[in-house]
Write a structure and sequence with these properties.
Number of helices: 7
Helix content: 10-25%
Shape: globular
Bound molecules: zinc ion
Radius of gyration: 20 Å
Low-confidence stretches: none
């Protein structure tokens, strides 16, 4: 019996106009025994760094001698946005799509993001499951998104183990907004189209390393490894709430200052018509909008950044589902 091996590779993702090559590190953990392959990446939105910290700890703790199969991990999938601590790249770098998570599976002869995605896609296609680590906005409940009706992806999401799982309709089943926003180009969606179980954990806040969500992410990744048979043991059975990712979120109708309703917290069950907060005029104090939930469900995001512009998202409510 061998002990397993960890190797790293410096991968060139694309070339910048100056000729500078954009590179990133790909970690490969090969177990002592054969088994499935898991592809996991973080920071394809560069400011979402909790996933990068999750992968660093995973690296430190992974017992290679107990691993059956292979884990491929990319801690920084999108270096240009990482350096800018941003979600997207400026037009100078990608005039086609500033958001890398709209271009999968990429194109080796396309724009910067398309090329970067195409390079990483080579690693995705040899995998048996995909985990794309993201973080949400401030005051978002950690959750895992998977494709509605896809049992294998739901199993992977349940194994990851956040309290809330959100199903998202895709393709023909999806609402217009899903198509309009280019969601078919998400890594998770492109991977699921290839028949791979795929999930997107959203680990709370960006820009900061938050201990509790990083710990949740590390535990989730190890449980995913157990679920897939990469590590011995089973992912524990959990009580989880399942809801549908609802795209028609509560938005600001007017610009001003937003004051969330007192006592409201992410994770709360909320009823249609229930107050979410007030947008008011900061100089006249005139209330401009009494924002309310548009449906019954679970409040999973509530903005705490008070200065809002008409159209900004104030809150997100997921539709509770009886059935997975
Ligand atoms: Zn993201």
């Amino acid at each position: 019996m061998t002990e397993g091996a960890h190797t790293t590779e410096r991968l060139t993702l694309a070339r910048l106009p100056s000729g500078v090559e954009l590179t990133t590190t790909v970690h490969t953990y090969r177990g002592a025994e054969p088994g499935p392959t898991l592809y996991v990446q973080a920071a394809q939105h560069g400011r979402e760094i909790n996933g990068t910290e999750v992968l660093r700890r995973f690296h430190d703790r992974l017992p290679l001698e107990s691993l059956s199969g292979t884990v491929i991990a990319v801690p920084v999938a999108n270096p240009p946005t990482f350096d800018r601590v941003s979600y997207t790249t400026p037009e100078q770098l990608d005039s086609v799509n500033p958001n890398m998570n709209r271009v999968w599976p990429g194109d080796a002869e396309g724009s910067l993001h398309q090329r970067m995605a195409a390079r990483l896609w080579e690693y995705v296609t040899v995998a048996d499951a995909v985990v794309d680590l993201h973080t949400g906005s401030p005051d978002m409940l950690p959750h895992v998104v998977y494709r509605e009706g896809d049992e294998r992806s739901r199993g992977l999401a349940a194994a990851f183990g956040t309290d809330l799982l959100l199903s998202e309709r895709a393709g023909e089943d999806a609402p217009d907004e899903w198509h309009r926003r280019g969601f078919e180009g998400k890594l998770r969606v492109a991977a699921a189209d290839e028949g791979l179980p795929a999930i997107t954990p959203e680990l709370a806040h960006n820009k900061r390393i938050l201990e509790d969500v990083v710990a949740e992410g590390v535990a989730g990744l190890f449980d995913v490894c157990r679920y897939l048979g990469l590590l011995p043991g089973d992912a524990p059975e959990r009580e989880q709430r399942i809801a549908r990712n609802h795209l028609g979120q509560v938005a600001a109708d007017e610009s001003g200052l937003f004051r969330p309703a007192l006592g409201l917290a992410v994770g709360d069950e909320i009823a249609e018509g229930e107050p979410i907060g007030t947008v008011y005029h900061p100089t006249t104090y005139e209330p401009l909008q009494e924002a309310v939930a548009e449906q019954d469900g679970i409040l999973y995001a509530l903005t705490r950044e008070a200065t809002v512009t008409a159209g900004d998202q104030l809150a997100s409510v997921a539709l509770t589902r009886e059935k997975p």
